[in-house]
Amino acid sequence: MSLSTHVLNAVTGRPAAGMLVRLSDAHGTVLAERRTDDDGRVKDLPAPGTGTHRLTFETGEISPFYPTVAIDFTVADPAAHYHVPLLLSPYSYSTYRGS
Description:
Layout: E1 2-9, E2 14-15, E3 20-25, E4 30-35, E5 41-45, E6 51-58, E7 68-75, E8 81-83, E9 86-89, E10 92-95
Parallel strand pairs: 1-8, 1-9
Antiparallel strand pairs: 1-2, 1-5, 3-4, 3-6, 6-7, 9-10
């Protein structure tokens, strides 16, 4: 299993570089903290295993309304790659399971 994320600032159409991203397990235990690279990506998150997990993004620099965005996701296949992108603007966000 591998895990990655990508953050795009929808207002500028540019990656959100330097954003803090936190990976936690279902109990709230922080498993990793990383900052997005110049391309808005975090490629080296640890493989959390099966179950429900959370990615928390510190979005306050882009969004005055959402200081953080938390995305809960479930890992069902421990052999698969999971990519959890975030598309962010000041007053909305969306996510999907990427490839």
